[in-house]
Amino acid sequence: MTLLLLPAFAVWLVCLAQPFGLSLDWWHTVFSVYYGRASLLGLAALLAVGSWRARHPVMHRIEMETEKPIERAFSVAFASDIHLGAVLGHSFAAELRRDMMNLQPDLILFGGDIIDGDFGYVLRDKSFKGFAGLKAPWGVYAVFGNHDTYGMNLSKEQKRLKQNGVRCLRGGTVHLVAGVSLVGMEDYMIAPHAQFPQAEPDAFTIAMEHKPLRIEQAASRGMDLYFAGHTHAGQFWPNRFVTRRIFALDYGAKRFGHLLAIVSSGYGAWGQLFRLGPAPEIVLVNVKPTRKV
Length: 293
Known about the structure:
The chain is of the alpha/beta class and 293 residues long. The chain has two domains: 2-53, no CATH class; 59-289, 4-Layer Sandwich (Purple Acid Phosphatase, chain A, domain 2). It is built from eight helices and twelve strands. The strands form two sheets. The chain has a six-stranded mixed sheet. The protein is elongated and about 80 Å long.
């Protein structure tokens, strides 16, 4: 709405000079009336499209090969930025559980901002109960994001998530199966100087953090697959002009040397459930060993 004021102001400045018989009277009686109506109709259409888009997550499938000696092909399902709270509650968590279980991945990962910040509301709504029954053969793991830190209830949130089958990683490494490891970093807001550990040379290592700020570091430490969120891919125009300049990768998948980095647009939304641009998503990565000739 603020951006729409700019062309109206530009026309107003032109009318001050009264070219071609135009005047401020024409601006007030004709232009501003029809421009205002058109703007309101356009905004209503955008709100309708953005609200529909935010309520219909998609699944993006990515295929990846590795030369690491993994025993078999496996799949990883990743979702970030769920933002459980006053807008998105128990039923939304249950939808995420259903979508994850339909994919039948070997490993499920959550990339932070699991709650929107009001931990008390999430408890009253019993939002975490929506995750009940969520499981995968190699487990369900999460890292915390900046919104999880609001209110300083991380330990309580970690306990509640564990009760519903989600294990939170705060800088540790988990050996999932023979030849496959997972590293989950604490959010940059909490531990800005934390660094990814050196990956074992013969282990396929998955790295996960909330903000995509340490991609190059993960690549230099020998990680193979990297997940992050936080950016929401801007969530709506023109925010992505900013996120593209802040982060080395603000959305999508990109190779950094041997590392495949993936930054998700998120499953939920910050504030009102509204999106323009990339849809909310779950990313499913299928990892398979490189074929030997």
